Amino acid sequence: MEAPRSVNSFLPRKALDALLSALRDGGYDCAAPVVRDGAVVYTRLQAQDRLPHGISIQQAPGRYRVGFTDSPRNFSWANGPQALKPFVFTAHETLWSARRDPDGNLCFTEPDRNVDPVAIIGVRSCDLAALALQDRHFLDGACADPHYQARRASLFLVAVNCSHPSDTCFCVSTGDGPAASDGYDLLLDELDDGFVIQAGSPEGQKILDRLPVVSTTDRQLQDINRQNRHAAECQTRRLPPGNLEPALFANLDHPHWQTVAERCLSCGNCTSVCPTCFCYRELDQGTLDSDHSEHIREWDSCFTQGHSYIHGVTIRAGTDLRYRQWLAHKLGSWHSQYGRSGCVGCGRCISWCPVGIDLTEEVATIVGAAS
Amino acid sequence: MSLALHHPVAAEIIARQQESPSIVSLTLRLEDRALADRFQFQPGQFNMLYLHGAGEIPVSISSDPSSPDPLVHTIRDVGRVSHGLAQLRPRDRVGLRGPFGRGWPVENARHRDVIVITGGLGCAPLVPVIDYVIQRRSAYGRLIIMQGVKHSDDLIWRERYAAWDAHPDTRVLLAADVGGKHWNGTVGPVTELFDQAQLRTGDSMAFLCGPEPMIRACVQRLLEEGLPADRIWISMERNMQCALGHCGHCQFGARFVCRDGPVFCYADIRHLFGRRGF
Lengths: 371, 278
Fold this sequence. Notes:
- The complex is a heterodimer.
- Chain A has 13 helices and 16 strands.
- Chain A is an alpha+beta fold.
- Chain A has 2 domains: 9-91 and 99-233, no CATH class; 245-366, no CATH class.
- In chain A, helix 9 packs across helix 11 (319-338).
- Chain A is globular.
- Chain A starts with 8 loop residues before the first strand and ends in a 5-residue tail after the last helix.
- Chain B folds into 2 domains: 9-100, Elongation Factor Tu (Ef-tu), domain 3, CATH 2.40.30.10; 107-269, Rossmann fold, CATH 3.40.50.80.
- Chain B is built from 8 helices and 15 strands.
- At the A-B interface, strand 6, strand 7, strand 13, strand 14 and strand 15 of A face strand 6 of B.
């Protein structure tokens, strides 16, 4: 993917701390990928923290392993189980709370939605595509979600063109990577000795103006072009092309749904790691005196028993129906809802599936596109 | 005009009617009178009712849209929250968000016969339609109301049905799968009523709400009698938690029942209606 580039700024590796400083001086908390519990997770950095380097990640169906090399690079890996979703659509939050006074009156209040601005460093193209999809779901239409909206407005996104896709990645086939085209404030291309850097927004330009950048060399530009080309060419998985909604809904009775269900544990890992899955359940948590109650939302999954429950009936009792719901929605009815597939090719659902179910293979079988 | 859609407002129960052993109607008055003045709803829309500390459930509005204050909700005691709501008494408070969803296309039915077919408490979301038609009686053709219940003792609103039946060009037909003593309606499923109804399907619009097997049987019968699929409207029920089209539970194919429904044109959903898993 070689977009026309008018970039001419290079940030030497030793000046990376200047980026963190400039972001902090600009009023942003910095969140960046670090290794925790055997996975790369985006976490808020403390003032003295630096970005880790030399991380490598191996992914395969049902497998995710972090290793370390002596590479100076900070971003020579594909992704962790989560990226932007928890920052905007949090896994657990209070929507409103209710208080009952001694006279039985009810009073409802919404939580304070002030969110400190946060700069997230190392965002991938697939993550930006997923964020754009979540924006459409939560912000477009008559009832924008105020909780999502407040967090979304607080984000400053430092993207990195993905140089090391995993074996599970297929963003080329969904058109969402490996290079970012828009949706970022700053964009980096990482080379061993530093970063080619460009701004994608006025806010990004303000930060860029404060960095000790030098002019890029022709060699550097050739290197990042070659790197981006390689990141695209090395991907082996792909989705069947085009809008799969008609084919999926024409195959609702395909026997393969049952074949997948014999392996699927209905655990919901795929929906938890999917950057576009948006389902959440609402529940109430009262205090012991029962006067105060918090109305909470937390991530839900169409693989749970409760997801389709309605007064005594579970509409999707079997795993075959739940897997079908997920896949026919993700790759099918998303087109009707939001004008494109709900899959951005990040491959997380493949890596984090405990039994290694690969949606690219399953959908190819179901729509008759098996190669 | 909607209330705050993202969190409830307080409403006081000003009357409670035990309609049957398991069905209760609550008459609600919004405490914020400025909001109450602005509140309007369309027939077929629903509110989210909140029971303190327990949770919210969607309940259709069963009162007259031309007098939206106070509001009536008729609730079947069937789950954790509805059980709690059914225990409430006048002066108790609930929370209310709404109204939500798209209602019945009553205006598009003008000058046509209106066929209302309901099963069990499926009658509740259609009471506003019946009120609407009766208040504009000359603007509509015949009004045919067909209601089925499992046991004749389950039938609520007998006086109301009798009063509707007395209006000109209005016919009420009742059926019970099991008829008890003194039952003079039809015994059998609601489809048994079709022969008596003498529908003029060439110029009718049908509105249906009730258990899905009953809806399927009635839709089949309407289609056989020549009513086109685009003049059959159905109110759907699915797991609804946010009512905003965000939480994902009520998805029916590409549609969010809470936002794109709960009332759908049968022609738009027939490809999935009745399919296992949707």
